[in-house]
Each structure stands twice: as structure tokens, then as C-alpha cells.
């Protein structure tokens, strides 16, 4: 058992000389075995060892019993120990969480506090192969994809799990051989919790009636899926560099991505959404599929995702943006400066500049107005007086929906003289009959002009 665990620690480079390891110890068999093995491993590697015990304030005297036992054990083995106490039931109620979620939050908060106080490097947790099997079956029943079926990772950031290579029965046998006592948490026997139902009702049937190696087989399969997940994630990182970039405060996902294999599309979108949302807690496979379906459709359609993320298809790209409370969806841009001059037309050459335009001044009927589009706005698009709605014109020009709403127009009532950055109305063009020209120039609207 010791050699097996120590080889696993070395395989994943969990502990190096000089590390300061914080072990989470509840007093149960798993965490007591972890502590005993880490204490033994100190004979091979020079590292410091400390303990955190979390009182969830749920089990009354039983919880006090557990805390006192861990304290006595650490004193006996001369290991520094710190107890933290959290009102987990209250946390669950106020945070709209399950007791399991609130308990997990309390434990990780305690680890962080002690790590900062004790200058710790890594947190060692006592998950083992039975936990991997339970997680696998739980996620399988919920309809998870490859990532969910990978089970529990041996190393994740500053968290290490030295016991993932052994089963619960091996842990209990080791403690019995060493004569080390441990405690039993009564809540672990209650089948009201989903995990406990899998632990006490599902896995025993698989082990005793189907295959006694069920747990190790599931753990091995989860490990193979973890390797596949790592490989696909590495490919997704390369594709993300090719197809995803940030533009004007939004994330642009090129339509070419959706010509790749669907599983790679999923991995790229998952990576992208995770970075945009700051995590994937509320984003599932259905949300990613909705974006893939959106990419197959036409422009102008929207999908709303958790975390105030919005997906929109605009011509050749999928755009993702995270709306912030109380803030505009797009960052403000400098407002352009307008200049105007009027002069007599004497057949001068008309400038062909994108942001400088000439108009027949005498045809202007109302006072000019610079604004964004309104219902009823139109352009004259040919010499015979044919009209087109501004909305239809912008769609024909493939102007994205977001830009259509913010594009500046030079308007004479509902008649648009100029869609800034695009065309002017045929009606206001300078001709041989023009007597007076109105020159309008926009500066700061484009970096090139």
C-alpha cells in the first residue's frame, strides 16, 4: 500500500523537497490514512506537513468528537493543526446551495485561510478510486460528456490527491494493519444524499453481482478518458488561436471553426466560454450545442447563456459578449468631429473620400440632423428616384446588427443624405445643375482618415 501510494505521488510530481503540504483531515478513514501516509512519506522527501479540520456545525456532539480526535492525533504525531468552524446549513440557505455545495465551499475557504497563514504550497485531499467511480456514475446518469466522465484529477492547480490510485477497502486494510483508529461520519450512512445512494446502493450491486473489479475498472476508464480529454483540449487550444479573437470588446469566433469535427467545436467553445465567464459552473453541453446550432443558421439570431453571455451570428462569424450590470454592452468610442462648409459649385472635381462628402445644398428641405436610424428612414438609390429602407440597405451591405443600431446618419427628416462610412443618397448628389455645395467632413470616425 505505501509503495503504491508513494509511486503514485512521484508519477504526478505531487510533492517535492521543500514543499509545505496542507492536508484536509476530517477524522474518517480516508483522511486519517492520507495523513498517516504523508507522515511516512516525509522519511523519503523533505517537506512540511500541516492539517486543517473543518467543523460544519451540523452534527452537534459528533462534530466536536471528530475535531477533538483530529487534534489529539496531530498532537501525538507532532503535526500543526488548525480547526475552522462554519455554519454550513445557514450558508446553504443564504447562498441557495445544497448542503454538499456549502460544505465544499467552507472547506476550500478554510484551506485558503490556512495556506495564507502557514505559507502553504499545496492542499492534499483524500479522494480515492471509490470516489472516482461514484463521480463517474453520477455524471454518467446526468448525461455528462467526456470531461465529466474523467472523474477526479490527480493534480489540479494547487490540489493533490495521493490516494486516487487505491480503493477504499485498501485504505481500511492499511489502517487495520497499522492499528490506527478512525471515526465514522453518520451523515455518510444517510441515503438522502445522491452520492450516498450511489455509494451504498448502486456500487455494491455492481461489485458483488457484476464484477468485483468494478471500481478499479471504472477508475481506469476514467483515467483513459482524462488522457483523451487532455489531448482534445490541447487541439482545441491550437484551433482557438486560429479561429477566435477579441474585437471591440467582443469575442469573434470565425465561421470556419464550424467546419471542423463537432467534438473539436465543442472543446473550442467550452474553452472560450470558460474564459469569458470566468468558469464553467453554469454552462453545460446544451448551451454549447445551442451555439453550434446558431452558427448553422442565418445572421441576426441570438442565444442567451448563463452569466449574462450573449451569442449572435453575424454573417461570417459567431460573436460572444458578456453584458455587465449597469454598463453598456460595448465600450464607448470617441465621438467623431464634424466640419461643414458651403461654397459655390464651379465644376470642381468631387473628392472620392470615405469620410468627406459633397451634397447639393439647394435640395435640402429641412434642417440637417446627425443621429442613429429610426423607423421610416430611407435612401434614394438610383437616378430614377428608387427608394430603399435604411434597414434593408444595411442588411444588404452585411452590416452587423449591433453596428446598425449605432451607425451615424446625416438626415434630412426621414430622407438620409449619408450613411456615414457608406454611401450617400442619389438625390443629393452634386450634378452639372448644382449651384451650391455643402461639404461635410467627419474626423475621428476612422483611423485612416
From the 3D coordinates, which CATH architecture of the largest domain would you assign? Answer: 3-Layer(aba) Sandwich
The total beta strand count reads 19
Write out the strand line-up for the largest beta sheet, numbering strands in chain order.
3-2-1-4-6-5
Mean pLDDT across all amino acids: 87
CATH names the topology of the largest domain as: Rossmann fold
Q: Which structural class do the helices and strands define?
A: alpha+beta
Keywords: ATP-binding, Cytoplasm, Ligase, Nucleotide-binding, tRNA processing
GO molecular function, one term: ATP binding
Organism: Lactonifactor longoviformis DSM 17459
Catalytic activity: cytidine(34) in tRNA(Ile2) + L-lysine + ATP = lysidine(34) in tRNA(Ile2) + AMP + diphosphate + H(+)
Walk me through this protein's architecture.
With 449 residues, the chain is α+β, with helices and mostly antiparallel strands. Helix content is 41%, strand content 20%. Helix 2 crosses helix 8, helix 10 crosses helix 11 and helix 11 packs across helix 12. It is elongated and about 110 Å long. The C terminus is likely disordered.
Describe this structure in a few short sentences:
The protein is α+β, with helices and mostly antiparallel strands and 449 residues long.
Amino acid at each position: 500500500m505505501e509503495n503504491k501510494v508513494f509511486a503514485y505521488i512521484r508519477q504526478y510530481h505531487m510533492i517535492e523537497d521543500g514543499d509545505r503540504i496542507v492536508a484536509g483531515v476530517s477524522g474518517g478513514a480516508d483522511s486519517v490514512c492520507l495523513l498517516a501516509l504523508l507522515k511516512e512519506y516525509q522519511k523519503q522527501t523533505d517537506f512540511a506537513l500541516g492539517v486543517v479540520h473543518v467543523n460544519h456545525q451540523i452534527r452537534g456532539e459528533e462534530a466536536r468528537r471528530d475535531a477533538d480526535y483530529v487534534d489529539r492525533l496531530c498532537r501525538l504525531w507532532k503535526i500543526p493543526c488548525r480547526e475552522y468552524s462554519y455554519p454550513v446549513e445557514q450558508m446553504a440557505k443564504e447562498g441557495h446551495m445544497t448542503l454538499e455545495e456549502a460544505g465544499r465551499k467552507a472547506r476550500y475557504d478554510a484551506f485558503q485561510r490556512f495556506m495564507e497563514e502557514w505559507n502553504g504550497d499545496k492542499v492534499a485531499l483524500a479522494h480515492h478510486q471509490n470516489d472516482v467511480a461514484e463521480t463517474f456514475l453520477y455524471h454518467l446518469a446526468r448525461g455528462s460528456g467526456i470531461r465529466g466522465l474523467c472523474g477526479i484529477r490527480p493534480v489540479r492547480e494547487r490540489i493533490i490527491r495521493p490516494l486516487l490510485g487505491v480503493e477504499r477497502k485498501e485504505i481500511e486494510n492499511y489502517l487495520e494493519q497499522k492499528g490506527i483508529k478512525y471515526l465514522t461520519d453518520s451523515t455518510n450512512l444517510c441515503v438522502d444524499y445522491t452520492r450516498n445512494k450511489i455509494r451504498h446502493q448502486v456500487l455494491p450491486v455492481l461489485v458483488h453481482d457484476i464484477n468485483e473489479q468494478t471500481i478499479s475498472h471504472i477508475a481506469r476508464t476514467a483515467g483513459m478518458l482524462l488522457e483523451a480529454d487532455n489531448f482534445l483540449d490541447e487541439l482545441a487550444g491550437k484551433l482557438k488561436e486560429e479561429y477566435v479573437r477579441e474585437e471591440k470588446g467582443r469575442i469573434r469566433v470565425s465561421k470556419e471553426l464550424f467546419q471542423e469535427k463537432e467534438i473539436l467545436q465543442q472543446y473550442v467553445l467550452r474553452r472560450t466560454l470558460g474564459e469569458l465567464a470566468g468558469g464553467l459552473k453554469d454552462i453545460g453541453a446544451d448551451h454549447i450545442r445551442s451555439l453550434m446550432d446558431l452558427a448553422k443558421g442565418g445572421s441576426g439570431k441570438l442565444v442567451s447563456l448563463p452569466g449574462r453571455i450573449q451569442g449572435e451570428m453575424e454573417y461570417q462569424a459567431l460573436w460572444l459578449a458578456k453584458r455587465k450590470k449597469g454598463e453598456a454592452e460595448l465600450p464607448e468610442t470617441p465621438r467623431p468631429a464634424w466640419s461643414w462648409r458651403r461654397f459655390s459649385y464651379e465644376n470642381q472635381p468631387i473628392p472620392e473620400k470615405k469620410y468627406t462628402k459633397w451634397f447639393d445644398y439647394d435640395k435640402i428641405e429641412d434642417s440637417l440632423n446627425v443621429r442613429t436610424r429610426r423607423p421610416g428612414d430611407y435612401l434614394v438609390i438610383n437616378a430614377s428616384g428608387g427608394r430603399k429602407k435604411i434597414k434593408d440597405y444595411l442588411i444588404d451591405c452585411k452590416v452587423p446588427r449591433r453596428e446598425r443600431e449605432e451607425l451615424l446618419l446625416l438626415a434630412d427628416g426621414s430622407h438620409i443624405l449619408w450613411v456615414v462610412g457608406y454611401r450617400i443618397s442619389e438625390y443629393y448628389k452634386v450634378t452639372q445643375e448644382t449651384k451650391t455645395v455643402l461639404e461635410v467632413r467627419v474626423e475621428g470616425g476612422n483611423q485612416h482618415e
